[in-house]
Amino acid sequence: MPTLLGKEIGPTGFGMMGLTWRADPIPEEQAIEALKAALRNGMNFWNGGEFYGTPEWNSLTLLERYFAKYPEDADKVVLSIKGGVNSAGGGPDGSPEGTRRSLDNCIALLKGRKKIDVFEFARRDQKVPLKTTFEVIEKEYIQTGKIGGISLSEVRAETIHEAVKITNVVFVECELSLFTRDILENGVAEACAQYNLPLVAYSPIGRGFLAGKYKTIEDVQPVHLRSWPWFQPGNFEINLQLAEQVAAMAKKKGVTPAQLAINWTRRISTWRKGAPKTIIPIPGATTVARIDENAVQVDITDEEMAEIDVTLAKFKLAGERYPDYVPVNT
Question: Pairing between strand 169-175 and 3-4?
């Protein structure tokens, strides 16, 4: 089993974004049931965000209510929280003042119910030196026991090389899926392997595409995704072709498309030369049934990985990962 900060975690984690950050948030009771289902399935690494929702309803407010109801679960969960977005809701703010504001707010929202094990800026602030940001976190929050450690999110390889010289990086979180394999080619995965850093893979189901549930644009949820590049007319139809091929391979193997997609990300650690030895996918879901499905571990053989490689080599994804206004590879 993988470990983070010396704590054992399940092979698959749980991404919390969809529980609170959507135009039509699910009921609180359902969100709490989802978290309980994740823990029951061994998905005890939870990844949330200060900005995953509104100031009144986000990952941290949900977590406070969950641990108020289930205080015995606090020590069972390894919790990672993204923050560092400026107070106006714009880009990252890695200034000492912005760093303190975000961390103090995250800690306050939890009301002492649970310690933040790992804190990560959702994106690197290009205007502030990493050393400036990390020194505040290290001296004022880690060394004082307020949080456990620092991780990196959506960074380029150069940022990893720079960060490890400044602080103890717990893990690197980047997008990895059958749709999005950029980090296997741009030096990010190689840097993680070089420093023995676990790679946390977000969106392993390709924002729902690889779950086999999309047939038309009206099927896409949350609704805001419909305006993103992958889902634009022309792009959507092309990308659906790969999703259909993944579904066919999953059917042949006797698993669901989501199970094949999630387990492929983890299998990369032993299949791809230069990949980090620990890859932890963090699929999100809002229903107990889907969480149960996503937690299933599937062994993918060398022959099956080779077959998938052949399929991927013939396919070119249509559209960028994010709209132009969202920073990537920071």
Answer: unpaired
Convert the pLDDT of each residue in 35-48 to its tens digit: 999 999 999 999 99
Residue 299 is encoded by which pair of tokens?
């062994």
Percent of the chain surpassing pLDDT 70? 99
Q: Which amino acid is at 323?
A: P
> What's the CA dihedral at 34, 39, 41, 47 to 10 degrees?
80
CA-CA distance, 84 to 121, in Å (whole number)?
5
Strand arrangement of the beta sheet that strand 14-15 belongs to: 14-15, 45-49, 78-83, 116-121, 147-153, 169-175, 199-202, 279-281
Active site residues: 52
Enter the pTM of the model: 0.94
Residue 277: what residue type?
K
> What pLDDT digit, counting tens, does each position of 244-298 carry?
999 999 999 999 999 999 999 999 999 999 999 999 999 999 999 999 999 999 9
Determine contact, residues 68/113, Cβ cutoff 8 Å. Answer: yes
